[in-house]
């Protein structure tokens, strides 16, 4: 009869599908909010990240941030995408053959996750964003000339990713052990 249905389509769409809030001279942006969240997590751990803390760091009202980032899932997705931007290569780094390019991808990915040791576990399940997609595309482009099948190329990328992520997890565990005196 007169029952109104809520429109969940805006909520279900990834944050990148929503335009940045408009204003004459925006003082904040999603990028700035994500960088502030990363800075807090890098200093104090992921658990310390909250909209209130981010707002304090940016000198803004907490409710203002919700104009840019509506949910915790959106914030996590933005944080993950910001880290993935650090793992992207320049075209020059992709040159020199598939082995060289894959080595550059591995080192750049390792370095990004070592800068943010909390991220691998805290951001599991984050929605993939544009930089995650670019990372996947650059990985596929890197192995395009490898003399193996498409399936083997995908498996090779997976093996390299697993190696890098395993290395980072092991280094983070070693750092934690050292910090606690184990």
List keywords for this structure.
182 residues; mainly alpha; 10 helices; disordered N terminus
What does this structure look like?
The longest helix is centred in the last third of the chain and has 31 residues, at 150-180. It is built from ten helices and no strands. By secondary structure, it is an all-alpha fold. It is 65% helix and 0% strand. Mean pLDDT is 87; it is low at 1-10. The protein has helices at 9-12, 30-44, 51-58, 62-68, 72-86, 91-94, 98-115, 119-122, 130-142, 150-180.
Tally of strands: 0
- How far the N terminus sits from the C terminus, by CA atoms, comes to 66 Å
Share of β-strand residues: under 5%
Task: Characterize the biggest β-sheet.
Answer: none
Order of helices and strands: HHHHHHHHHH
Contiguous uncertain segments of 5+ residues: 1-10
| Fraction of residues in H or I helices | 55-70%
Overall mean pLDDT stands at 87
> Structural class of the helix and strand makeup?
mainly alpha
The helix tally amounts to 10
Alpha-carbon Rg, integer:
19 Å
Furnish the topology, listing elements before pairings.
Blueprint: H1 9-12, H2 30-44, H3 51-58, H4 62-68, H5 72-86, H6 91-94, H7 98-115, H8 119-122, H9 130-142, H10 150-180
Summary of the model, kept short:
By secondary structure, the protein is an all-alpha fold.
């Amino acid at each position: 009869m007169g029952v109104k249905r809520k429109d969940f389509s805006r909520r279900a769409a990834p944050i990148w599908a929503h335009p940045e809030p408009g204003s004459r001279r925006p003082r904040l942006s999603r990028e700035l909010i994500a960088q502030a969240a990363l800075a807090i997590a890098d200093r104090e751990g992921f658990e310390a990240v909250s909209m209130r803390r981010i707002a304090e760091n940016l000198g803004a009202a907490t409710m203002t941030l919700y104009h840019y980032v509506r949910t915790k899932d959106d914030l996590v997705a933005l944080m993950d995408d910001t880290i993935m931007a650090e793992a992207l290569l320049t075209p020059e780094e992709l040159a020199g053959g598939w082995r060289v390019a894959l080595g550059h991808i591995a080192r750049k990915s390792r370095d990004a996750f070592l800068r943010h040791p909390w991220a691998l576990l805290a951001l599991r399940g984050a929605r993939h964003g544009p930089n995650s997609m670019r990372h996947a595309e650059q990985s596929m482009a890197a192995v395009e000339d490898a003399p193996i099948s498409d399936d083997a190329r995908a498996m090779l990328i997976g093996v390299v990713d697993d190696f890098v992520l395993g290395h980072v997890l092991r280094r983070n565990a070693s750092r934690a052990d050292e910090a606690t005196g184990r």
